[in-house]
Amino acid sequence: MDINDIKAARDRIAGYVKRTPLEYSSSLSKHLGTNVFVKYELFQKTGAFKVRGAFNKLMSMSDEERSRGVVAVSGGNHAQAVAYAASVLGVDAVIAMPENTPETYLNATRGYGATVDLQATIAKAFERVKEYEAAGRIFLHPFDDELIIAGQGTVGLEILEDVPDVTDIFVSIGGGGLAGGVAIAAKAANPDIRVWGVETVGADAMSQALAAGEPVTLSAITSIAKTLGAPYVTESTLTMARDLLESVTVITDAEAVKALTFIAERLKVITEPAASCTLAAAAKLRDNFSADSKVVLIFCGGNTSIADACGYLAM
């Protein structure tokens, strides 16, 4: 996969996804001592970037494949994205989801018309998908699919159009599809752009895989950042991370919540911990920036309920 695939994805999905805003933040710039911009992907339809990949995949399928229906596995945002895109395109969708998925994600996924199949864990949900595939459904993998990755990479194209002299991009990692797609787009424009990956403790499959030199399966997802909760990364996303990312910074849930609170108070938006962690990571890495740096934080999602937010503050 290369930049041409991402450009093709941009053209393919243009009528179905939003071109989300990217804005300079004086508050975050003062906080980090450099020039900070925010890519507000939480304003995307379904509240996260995932619809980009879902539409690109579904629109690349044949009519015969669509007629068989699709199945996906997700702890939240991919579920909503596939459900929404499938509804728009008239495709029947089933989503296997872990039982600890927040109610707001379950309700939204069902609201978009998909059938939800609850499983004990995210690992069990992946196993359940095999049964649906055997019955003929097409599996829309949340991150290990070039069409999915190309769709997510369109976020990178928009960043480069709005801040062509960007020096640093911070992007969250679940399975690594968004990070890989954004990094391919950024490096194609300027190999000197640094792309920094971010995970949270308890949802750190990529950092563990990088340390081990191969994919590692997490025994459980314990972070509150459920949308980063891929139980493993794959050889393809691990290779992209190893080759294209500066590093992967792992922060605590408490650090993510502190950043979420700061963002809510200063920028007046409520992110997911999976998005606010980018600010926490950038703060840890601030010594890498100069006064002239141009740093973009991707706020990948905002599907945090008021109940969840209150729960985070009580931690």
Structural class: alpha/beta
The CATH architecture of the largest domain can be given as 3-Layer(aba) Sandwich
Q: What's the total number of strands?
A: 10
What would you report as the Rg, rounded to the nearest angstrom?
Answer: 18 Å
CATH topology category name of the largest domain? Rossmann fold
Quick description:
With about 325 residues, the protein is α/β, with parallel strands linked by helices.
Word description of this protein:
By secondary structure, the chain is of the alpha/beta class. The protein folds into two domains: 3-49 and 145-313, Rossmann fold; 51-139, Rossmann fold (3-Layer(aba) Sandwich), CATH 3.40.50. 48% of the residues lie in helices and 15% in strands. The chain is built from 14 helices and ten strands. The protein has helices at residues 3-13, 26-32, 51-60, 63-67, 77-89, 103-111, 122-134, 146-162, 177-189, 205-212, 235-244, 253-267, 273-284, 306-313, and strands at 22-24, 35-40, 70-73, 93-98, 115-119, 138-139, 168-172, 194-200, 248-251, 294-299. The strands form two sheets. It has a six-stranded mixed β-sheet with strand order 1-2-10-7-8-9, sandwiched between helices. The protein has a four-stranded parallel β-sheet with strand order 5-4-3-6. Helix 1 packs across helix 8 (146-162) and helix 5 (77-89) packs parallel to helix 6 (103-111). The longest helix is centred in the middle third of the chain and has 17 residues, at 146-162. It is globular, with a radius of gyration of 18 Å. The protein starts with a helix and ends with a helix. The mean pLDDT is 96.
